[in-house]
Amino acid sequence: MSFKEIIDKVVADGAAYCDIRKEHWNKTSLTLKDGVPEMVAQGEEEGAMVRVFYGNGWGCVGTNDLDDIQETANRALTMAKKSARYKESETDLADIEINQDKIKIPMKEDFRDISAEEKLSFLKELEYNLSKNFVKSTDIRYRDSLVEKEIITSEGTHIQMEIPRLVAYLIVTGKSDTIQRASEGTGGTGGYEITEKTLDKTNVVLDRLETLLEASTPPSGKMPLIMDPHLAGVFSHEAFGHAAEGDLVASDNSCLKGKLGEKVASDIVTIKDDPTMEGYGSFPYDDEGTKTRNRVLVKEGTLNDFILDRENAWKLDLEPNGGARAEDFRVKPLVRMSNTIMEPGDMKFEELLEEIKGRGVYAKASSGGQVSPAQGTFQFNAQESYLIEDGEIVKPLRDVSFNGFTLDTLQNITGITDKLETGIGHCGKGQTAPVSDGAGHVLVSEVMVGGRE
Ligand SMILES: [Zn+2]
Q1: In this predicted model, what pLDDT tens digit does every residue of 427-448 receive, in sequence order?
Q2: Ligand 1 centre and the CA of 187: distance in Å?
Q3: Which terminal residue of the chain has fewer beta carbons within 10 Å of its beta carbon, N or C?
Q4: Which domains does the chain have, with CATH numbers?
């Protein structure tokens, strides 16, 4: 039976909705740690997920046996019927435009044509560039993946798409009186041509590590902060973006609930999550077959939209905007971000510095942190930081962290520079999603800065 016939049968058996998402993956992962290849994985796999909506219940079953889709669909239907029995609150799917489309994100240089040995020798070249006397340890990670997806729904959606992605991370560690680490990642949707950007990053991590090894411990207290584009991008994703995910809003786990149309940031702040722009987190259709569009989450300070799949759009009485993503065919799609950008402003970096009277901190790149979308709080660690005194950069700092309330911090943004820079990341929410984020340099008039252990 064809997928269409299988879907038709599930609907004939009483389901309100059914979709099948078939995926074929071609992946290579390589790790070079201190010059030793630690993990080399290369291969192909395929599988599918069947989702069935019956009554108010869902049944979602994944399989890597494509000859077994009929049985998988039966299991999904049984599961949906069971789940409907226990579900008390009503739920449904908001309508979407029905599309039949075939779309392929191009690779200038197809990474499937390049052998694992050749990829490994590229990593060795990176390692060679990173070998300086102050570097004690190097860790280089490479991963490419091409996914061919087919999404067919009982409503007539039929999407075929090919998405190639490539990512590489450089991590260097050094030691003075403490151990310091610097890392940079590059990546995007596209082919092996993306690795050209990786070579440029070797100097960035080396400079950063060298600076950190000589840096002082930071001051603490409330003070102005300039975030570089990478840190401001991570702030936009982590502190704000997660709170704008429709499932968290609908389940009352977001500080943004009920605030659509309200001021949540200063007038110069516009934040978008845009799967349609070029970036590591791009995709033309989401995993429910919804055509993606740019989501302007904050428009000149006002909360304007959420990231939405079909079910949470229905719950919130809003329009789905292509927010459903699944890590692979084994799992059901969740509401996820894509490329999260705080739009650049009209200032120059020197002008941001001049705004700082007295003491402040300039913080670059992130090295982890914590957020609570429900409480609207965040804590971030910067990789590289500098002390600012009366508009001048005075000296490097290490182990800088800062924290606060997301909405207060967004209100305290008083300057954004005019040049957008983006970075890449892997967002975790039970499943991993490739994402990117970006911003200009961002001045926050006041935030709590402190050191960390
Ligand atoms: Zn995230």
Answers
A1: 999 999 999 999 999 999 999 9
A2: 17
A3: C
A4: 3-211 (3.30.2290.10), 221-451 (no CATH)
